[in-house]
Write a structure and sequence with these properties.
By secondary structure, chain A is α/β, with parallel strands linked by helices. Chain A has four helices and five strands; from the N terminus they run ββαβαβαβα. Chain A has helices spanning about 25-35, 55-70, 80-90, 105-110, and strands at about 1-10, 10-20, 40-55, 75-80, 100. Chain A has a five-stranded mixed beta sheet with strand order 1-2-3-4-5, with helices on both faces. In chain B, the strands form three sheets. Chain B has a five-stranded antiparallel beta sheet, with helices on one face. In chain B, about 35% of the residues are buried. The radius of gyration of chain B is 49 Å and the shape is elongated. By secondary structure, chain B is of the alpha+beta class. The chains are: A alpha/beta, B alpha+beta. The interface of A and B includes residues 55 and 93 of A. Chain A: Belongs to the anti-sigma-factor antagonist family.
Chain lengths: ~110, ~675
Amino acid sequence: MKITHEIKDNTITISLDGELDASSSVLLDEELSNPSIMKYSKILVDCAKLNYISSAGLGVFISHLQRFEDSQIKLIFYNMQEKVKNVFEILGLDLLMTIVSTYDEAMTVANE
Amino acid sequence: MPYTTRLKRSYAALAVASWLLLLGNIILCIKTNVNLQEGSVYLHLNNVLVVAFTLGVFMAQHHNTEHFKGTDFLTYLWKLFARAGIAAYVCLVLHLGYEIGSRYWFNPNPYLENVIYNINFALFIYFLAKAFNTWKRLILFQKSKALHVEWRWFEWLMYGSLLLTLFNVNYITYIFIPLMCLLVLYIFFVSVNLRWVAYLNLTKKWRSIFLLGAILVSIFLFAKYFQIQNDNQTLVVNHGDHPFVLLMLFFVFVYSLASLLVAVFSLPTSKVFEQKREDLLNIQRLSQSIQQGQDESQVLDIFFDSAIRASGADAAWLEELRTEEMVTHTLNLDTAKIDLIRQVLKSLNLNNVDYINNNLDMNYHFRELGLPFKSMLVVALKSNKETFGVLYLLKDVEHAFDRETVNTVRTYTNQTILTIENLRLIEDSLQNERYKEELKIASAVQDSLIPKSFPSDSWFQISTFAKAAKEVGGDFYDFLMLSESRIAIIIGDVSGKGVSAAFHMAQMKGIFHALMQDNLDPVVFMLKANSALSRCLERTSFITSSLYIIDYKMQGLSFARAGHCHTLYYNSMTEETFYFQTEGLGLGIIRDASYAKRIHKLHYDYNPGDVMVIYTDGVTEARSPTNEEYGEDRLREMLMQTYHLEADDIKYAIINDLNEFTGDAHIHDDQTLLVVKFKNVQPKFQM
């Protein structure tokens, strides 16, 4: 699992590369728990290279969801592979989180 | 009887027989008053019998079955002296007894004198044979191949000299004298092998010196006796000039003397060797302490004692570093002095590091202390990871810790570190073993939480399968008969794996049984369960679950899906296989009342022959060796082929296909599978 981030104005784009399982979700949790992330108003998650997400990985996003919502930070997933998206859908998270197909779309949603 | 014992006995018999014949021959000679002239038959007979006797005795000793036990040389010396050396004194007593007796009590008797002479000769040969055999063992101690060959040659040459007697060759000629001289040189050459002496400690050396001295006295007595008897005209034959006997006597004497001298001259160095041997033994003890089940403190005991003995330190102490420095062993020092010395070392910034000072007086701080010590050695018991302790050695002479001593102490230190590390590794592995045991118990407990006896009735069939990826898992399922015609089935999956998941699973089971007593609607159940779990589930955890209530009277099925995998269904009327597409959020994701908006109920009228497949994501997300997922489509495909079978057979078909798909690959997630088949038969109405 490789996690990289890119900062542009008030937007932070986190790219996930590989499999988000129990061990790598700890890294993601560290990234999202970092207080400096609250400076941004938009968090985009690039899931293009995310091949697999385990329940632990989902748990990390779920645990931060409320906090971001309270701070009016938008969390947007894009470029999600079909099978990963399916996992979100089965759990019902697609109705709770914003999942769009492209970066442009994500930017549009973010700037609404 | 072993072969060697038989051989030994036959040789002994040969010796006894030939000695008796020899005696008879001599008595016959006296009786007939025959002189053993050159070339006479009696002389030849005499020589043949002497050779036979000598060979018999030597061979009997050669096949002696006693074996060397380790390095117990003293026993051999003692046995040689006690069994054969004493013979010299017997010889002396017999001789003096005859001399005195013939002077005061009876007239000189040629028969008696010859008999005594021959008895003494037999004792002498026995002594030589015994000594030869003992020396052979000492010489061949830790033998090399070359030495073995050399010894073989030596034996053959020595025995060869018997031929001179056998053929009655006059050996004092120009031909044989150089050969004899060469043999004498060979004796010196062989007698150099005195390796065994080095293995004696000081006390043993002293004792062996006394024993060797006594043996030398025996040799001297024998030699003197036969020398005196050489000119005795009363004796019919003179055995004292057989070259074999002379050479053997010379060899036994040379080796005894050499051993004695070497033992005497090695007395002063023996302490050094002993110390080295002790060092080796102590290191061995340290390395074996694990097998002997000793603990760390015992290892440190051995280390402390060994280091003091190896260095000859006058004072010492050992500190263990667990949480803080703690003096565990001391020698000739009290805590106050130790504190003083350590303060000086601390002030010199030499805390817990290796340090040698062979002239403490040169250092102002140490001189100030007014302690009698002049040299100091500090060695830290340090591995790559941590420091176990520090050893301080003090001596009251200057330059006491030379390179040799320091190396020895270092060797001890390294061995001790190794031993302590190994001990700790063993402890860790025992600890792990205990954890494994506890996990096994947890696994057994969890296993007992999964229902074993399924509610069975004539109107439905249920078949279940569950396999955890680890000892304990987060999947669960359960049943509850609400009435004779209604059954509640729940399946769930706790996020994460292992022990924490197992706890939540148990919690969920409790919630199911508690809430379903009230005969709740599936959606209401999910709402209450979500609310209950919100209070106890950690933030990153959530649970997916589906609850089904099947009602036979209504021929209907109502269920709610909280983020769990879609339910696979086969409708026997339309002959269609499909997944129920319902929406519903997992439990514990939204932890307030707004969850009500996220959960929905679905009602479905079932037909007899319908099949419902309920599972966890461990099934659909199982991967093949090529990292392909099993997937919903493949599962649906399986049901399309097997819906007509009994619930059990449908389950087995799916599991077989799943196992074939994943191959031997280790499963990543818990797998649970339930197959429910509806039947067209009345309920039995008894529970």
